[in-house]
Amino acid sequence: MFAVLKNLGWFFKREKRRYVIGLVLLILAGVLELAPPRLLGKAIDNIATGTVTWSSLTTYILLIIAVLAIIYLITYIWMHKLFGGSNLVERLLRTRFMNHLLGMTPPFFERSRTGDLMARATNDLRSVAGTVGFGMLTLTDSTAYLSVIFIAMSTLISWKLTLAAIIPLPFIALAMKIYGKIIHERYTLAQDAFGDMNDQVLESVAGIRVIRAYVQERNDEKRFADITNDVYKKNLAVAKVDAYFEPTIRLFVGLSYAIGLTYGIYLVFHNELTLGDLVSFNMYLGMMIWPMFAIGELINVMQRGGASLDRVNETLNVRPDVQDPEHPVEVAVPESIEFKDVTFRYPTSTINNLENIDLSIQRGETLGIVGRTGSGKSTLLKQLLHEYPSGTGELVISGVPIGQITLNRLHGWIGYVPQEQVLFSKTVRQNIQFGRSGASDDVIMEAIRTAAFDQDLGTLSDGLDTLVGEKGVALSGGQKQRVSLARAFIADPDILILDDALSAVDARTEARIIENIRSKRSGKTTLISTHRLSAIEHADWIVVLEKGRIIEQGTHEELLQQNGWYREQYERQQVESNLTDGEVS
Questions:
Q1: Is the pLDDT of residue 553 over 70?
Q2: Which of 130, 364, 387, 539 could crosslink 368 through cysteines, CB 3.0-4.6 Å?
């Protein structure tokens, strides 16, 4: 049960001073709370014997008030320390969790569900934080505070009465152990269900246009109702066990009261106990109610926190599929890129997605990659990102295998525009500045002109300050592509990768962008995959892929002379272009 505290040992070690002060003051407050009942018992005995005076009564009252004031001050300090630690560990763990996600590679996100990761980053971390705040409170009160009360009852009142009154207490411990195990199991299932619900919401929101287009609103509502019902049932299963804690404790504490009162009266009649002692004892017995409840709360909090920490650690313990080399080789500039008999297969694939790829690209050259859908164009480009474990063969940059270059160095060379553009819920300016932090408006406008987005900018309501909405929902497909292109251009990378990044723009805009790339990227390497051959006619070298293999390669003119797939596709696209131009005219 306390494994969660052991696993958080690094935090307690770091915040040792905070917790030493907090726990010492918490125990001190518990000791001071013993004084008012004892003073009240003494006052009652004085009244019963007729020895009370206004002076002594005033003294008792002032002492009780003074003790309560001191307890108030001490309680403020320990609550600030303990519950402040709870907020602190939540912030630290959330930061660590987010940093971990940012360092993970695509295979991890292919295996993980976004909704489940969100559940772990919110609900689970909140439960873990509860163990170092409320959990430490209940741990201290159910052990140290309970022991202090027990010792006071035994030494100051009557050890016989104390032993009789605590007979029911071991049954509380047994019940708590049984309930705690069930809580752990059911809470884990409830959190998993919460992650499933998050996934459903994300998919529905992201795909709302498709859902409406196919008139699937009612079906989606039913799916969501089913999954929320599942979450409700699993949380209800937790609540049912949780509901046993308080009645169980009240039952056995009530038995303690009954035994204490009955046996206490017997001792008073036999002059083994004074009336004041019996009143004090019953007040102490009342003070034991919270420590008894604290045992139940402790088990509940620790089991929830343990289940949540297991889920969080499950994510944090996953290592990236691709990591930095132990002994990296420093490469200043990517002078050349060479694929030497590279064969690659995705972890989830049963066939080779690239096979026997041999290519050589020198700095300043442009490589065009074409082929049918699913031929491996994107896969070939992603080899340079080194997001997946390498296959066989070698991918070499400036004579150094890519596995010996740090990921930060490698990614620092690359500007990447993927097929599916990702824009953030910020302004156009902020999205473009993602490529170069703090870039001035003049630099941004130059990148926009290179991406042929300058004319569209005037149609936006607030120009550069226009909010693009989540995932760029406020922009058209072509506009999103060109904002993504501007983001890559402003970074001025050594290696620019365009993965079918011109598919949503018209032929005239495409020609303008390609011309801008040719003029502004002189001396830097560019790789372009596309379905429209007009985008790579200017390339220094072109490869045609089929089922992960290079079936044709050469310059534009050389490929036309080979009378293969490239020429057939080129002539078809020329006919389509002429027909389109004819319709326009």
A1: yes
A2: 539
Inter-residue contact 300 to 322 (CB < 8 Å): no
**564: phi then psi, degrees, rounded to nearest 5:** -110, -150
Side by side, the strands of the sheet bearing 525-529 are 414-417, 495-499, 525-529, 366-371, 541-546, 549-554
Cα–chain-centroid distance for residue 146? 38
Predicted pLDDT at 584: 45
Q: Which two tokens stand for residue 120?
A: 């772990």
pLDDT of residue 184: 75
> Which CATH code, of 3.40.250.10, 3.20.20.105, 1.10.600.10, 3.40.50.300, is assigned to 336-584?
3.40.50.300
Chain centre to alpha carbon of residue 448: 34
Instruction: With H, G, I as helix, E, B as strand and everything else as coil, classify residue 499.
Output: strand
Task: For strands 354-362 and 336-344, give the pairing.
Answer: antiparallel
Residue with tokens 């009154």: 165
Cα–chain center distance at 425: 19
115 backbone dihedrals φ, ψ, rounded to 5°: -60, -40
- Residue 424 main-chain phi, psi, to 5 deg: -95, 160
Contacts of 237 (CB under 8 A, 6+ apart): 186, 189, 190
Looking at residue 583, its pLDDT comes to: 52
Predicted pLDDT of residue 471 = 61
In the chain, the amino acid numbered 213 is: A
Give the DSSP letter of residue 355.
E
Rounded distance, CA 338 to CA 490, Å? Answer: 26
Tokens representing residue 515 in the block: 């011309």
List pLDDT tens digits, range 4-22. 888 888 999 999 999 999 9
* 358 sits in which H/E element: strand 354-362
Structural domain boundaries in the chain: 3-316, 336-584
pTM, to two decimals: 0.74
CATH topology (fold) of 3-316 = ABC transporter transmembrane region fold (1.20.1560)
What is the dihedral angle through the alpha carbons of 487, 515, 500, 385, rounded to the nearest 10 degrees? Answer: -60
DSSP assignment, residue 427? B
| Segment among 16-20, 280-284, 316-320, 493-497 with least mean pLDDT | 280-284
Q: Rounded to whole angstroms, how far apart are CA atoms 577 and 570? A: 10
Paired strand residues for 543: 369, 553
Interval 121-127 mean pLDDT: 87
Strand-pair category, 414-417 with 549-554: unpaired
Q: d(Cα 316, Cα 87) in Å, to the nearest integer?
A: 20
Output the six-digit token pair for 168.
């029911």
CB neighbourhood size of 527 (10 A): 24
- Enter the tokens of residue 418: 């993927």
